[in-house]
Design goal:
The complex is a heterodimer. Chain A is α/β, with parallel strands linked by helices. Chain A has two domains: 141 residues, no CATH class; 284 residues, Rossmann fold (3-Layer(aba) Sandwich), CATH 3.40.50. Chain A is built from twelve helices and 13 strands. In chain A, strand 1 and strand 2 form a beta hairpin. In chain A, 51% of the residues are buried. Chain B is α+β, with helices and mostly antiparallel strands. In chain B, a hairpin with a 2-residue loop joins strand 1 and strand 2. Chain B is rod-shaped. Classes of the chains: A alpha/beta, B alpha+beta. At the A-B interface, helix 1 and helix 3 of A face helix 3 and strand 8 of B.
Chain lengths: 433, 186
């Protein structure tokens, strides 16, 4: 009897501890599973970086996002060491399979994260030769069906160079306008292709003022889309023609993107947009420019412009003063105190305003930027790109095509415009293998 | 079983302890075999109970931790996706990005916190938690990443339920879940 007890007692204790260890390991494995899924969603939310920063830098950013979230989820787990492996690729929803990005492929739509963790077991498990337990969980985040979303494209109407306007048809500048038209159409097609007839599309042009080229319109049918496409192609709208009438049309000078953003905010301010997914896509070839050689008040055809130069943009030196613009960059005749720098600060301020959830409960607006030219001679292109990228808000993308004339490659202007739309319009979900 | 133990104790007294005391002294007691099982049981029961309840308490504690993890994950996803736009202090904004020590319940036995509403992240974090302990919730939104996190805490001893020997009185169980913030932040 004594011998039996002497043998049974330690065995009983060991079994009990083993049970405790198993429960602990199960609990930690469950958390590691969540950590992997959360990491996949984090990586998926950064997928746009692959397109905006390039394959190498984008992949680094995506991996970093996954690692940050995974580590945060296992930080409280004791005796656990973990790691994540991130793979970009494509998800086939029909076969429910993930395929890593093949060499030469440039369009990942999914991210696979493998979360591995070693759970060091407690003493009892060591008795049965199990000093540690390796757990491996896999999760795939993929871009799902497009959602209902609204997009206002801000078109830089000032032309590649100051005072050139868009150029008369057939001129060198006309090629630039052609590319911007193509980008507008690419985004229009993207929104329409999403298949959600409640999604809305609009275009606002800006020089030193902003004006609505195409009011936000639900793409409820093919004919609506065709009408808008015709407008973009200068068939049906005089406004699209305005800056093409003559190089001497001095109203088409400068670049005040703040006024454009302000206009977009105003267009999204209605109750109908309080809980919708709202986006601004800025197409620009330069930093904000104030052109003192012309007096905008004297050169603008009022019927074609809906906003005065300084309307709503009174942030000076980074300090939001609120209310109407006063005395500076307000477009009034004789104004001489406006500068490029002030217009740039206005742009930064308006971007913050757009991205902020105001009023209470309203979703902030996502801002994406496409900087498509390096022809600004006063600031280094890298600095220009950095400043323009700083306007992005709420996960919007910052793209930098090589040149507006690059239309064919994946990094081209039009291609990237379509990609921006595709990314902001997509929903992110965990794939179900 | 109880009757046998009682008989053993009575037998031990009548057959061994009393004669040893009255007539024979300790050598007699040493030779007496009556009540041996009772003595052995008395010696063994304390560590046995310690071990049994220790196992129960530890397993309940890990079960509780597992439930806490599920609840914190639920709350985190509700906050991260923007389905719950408020924390216990009000609408989540840049000036109100976190909450701390929000009780899911209070008192003994625990009574659910009636102040929690469906717009609050804490409401979902408190959903499904065991009813035998008082849990607290902390939420945090960090837009620099951006990420949203929920931490549920409870005294380990009360979570263990059967911690009659107070093994875990000074310990705190924590379950933290973090997810990337989607959409607008804050």
């Amino acid at each position: 009897m004594t011998l039996f007890v002497a043998l049974a007692f330690p065995a009983t204790i060991a079994m009990g501890l083993l049970a405790v260890d198993a429960v602990r390991a199960y609990s930690q494995a469950s958390q590691i599973n969540f950590a992997t899924q959360a990491a996949a969603l984090a990586a998926g939310s950064q997928l746009g970086n692959y397109y905006s920063q390039g394959a190498a830098n984008g992949t680094t950013a995506i991996s970093a996002a996954a690692s940050t979230i995974a580590n945060a989820n296992v930080a409280n787990l004791s005796n656990v060491t973990s790691s994540t492996t991130v793979t970009l690729g494509n998800w086939d929803s029909v076969s429910s399979t993930f395929t890593g990005l093949a060499a030469g492929s440039t369009s990942p739509n999914a991210v696979q994260v493998i979360g591995s963790a070693t759970i060091n077991t407690i003493l009892a498990s060591s008795f049965v030769g199990q000093s540690s337990l390796t757990v491996s969980k896999t999760a795939v985040a993929t871009l799902g069906s497009p959602k209902t979303f609204n997009v206002i494209v801000l078109n830089e109407m000032g032309g590649p160079n100051i005072n050139q306007g868009l150029g008369v048809p057939g001129s060198a500048q006309a090629n630039w306008w052609t590319q911007q038209q193509a980008a507008d159409l690419a985004i229009l097609n993207c929104v329409a292709a999403a298949g959600n007839t409640a999604s809305q599309f609009g275009i606002t042009g800006y020089v030193e003022q902003a004006y609505t080229l195409q009011a936000l319109t639900a793409l409820s049918s093919a004919s609506v889309k065709t009408t808008i496409a015709n407008n973009i192609n200068n068939v049906g709208s005089a406004k699209f023609q305005y800056c093409r009438q003559s190089k001497s049309a001095q109203a088409c000078h400068g670049s005040n993107v703040a006024a454009g953003i302000y206009s977009a905010i105003s267009q999204f301010s209605g109750a109908a947009y309080a809980s919708t997914s709202n986006h601004i896509v800025i197409l620009t070839n330069e930093l904000p420019i104030y052109d003192p050689t012309a007096n905008p008040a004297q050169n603008i055809v009022a019927t074609n412009y809906s906003l005065a130069m300084g309307t709503g943009v009174s942030q000076v030196n980074g300090v939001w003063t609120g209310g109407a613009a006063t005395g500076i960059c307000n477009g009034a005749a004789g104004t001489t105190t406006c500068t490029n720098t002030l217009l740039q600060e206005m742009a930064e301020g308006q971007a913050v305003t757009a991205g902020t959830a105001v009023p209470s409960g309203r979703s902030g607006i996502t801002i994406s930027t496409i900087y498509y030219s390096t022809d600004n001679n006063t600031v280094s292109p890298t600095a220009v790109a950095t400043e323009i990228a700083s306007w992005t808000k709420n996960g919007g993308l910052s793209m930098r095509p090589y040149s507006y004339t690059d239309t064919a490659s994946a990094g081209g202007f039009v291609t990237q415009a379509a990609k921006v739309c595709q990314m902001i319009g997509a929903t992110l979900r965990l794939a179900s293998p | 079983m109880r009757a046998n133990i009682g008989a053993d104790i009575v037998g031990l007294f009548e057959a061994c302890l009393y004669p040893a005391y009255r007539w024979a002294g300790l050598p007699s007691l040493a030779r007496c075999r009556r009540g041996v099982a009772a003595v052995e049981f008395a010696l063994a029961i304390t560590p046995m109970l310690l071990i049994v309840f220790g196992f129960i308490a530890t397993n309940v504690m890990f079960y509780t931790l597992s439930v806490m993890q599920n609840s914190s994950q639920y709350g985190t996803m509700m906050g991260a996706t923007g389905q719950a736009k408020s924390n216990f202090n009000g609408l989540i904004t840049s000036g109100n990005s976190s909450s701390s020590s929000v009780p899911c319940s209070s008192g003994t036995p625990p009574v659910p916190n009636a102040s929690l509403t469906t717009s609050m992240v804490e409401y979902y974090a408190c959903t499904g938690l065991p009813t035998w302990a008082n849990f607290t919730v902390a939420t945090s939104e960090d837009c620099s990443v951006p990420k949203f996190s929920v931490t549920i805490s409870v005294n380990a001893s009360s979570a263990a339920l059967a911690d009659i020997f107070n093994f875990f009185t000074s310990e705190t169980l924590k379950a933290t879940s973090v997810a990337v913030k989607q959409g607008t932040c804050p």
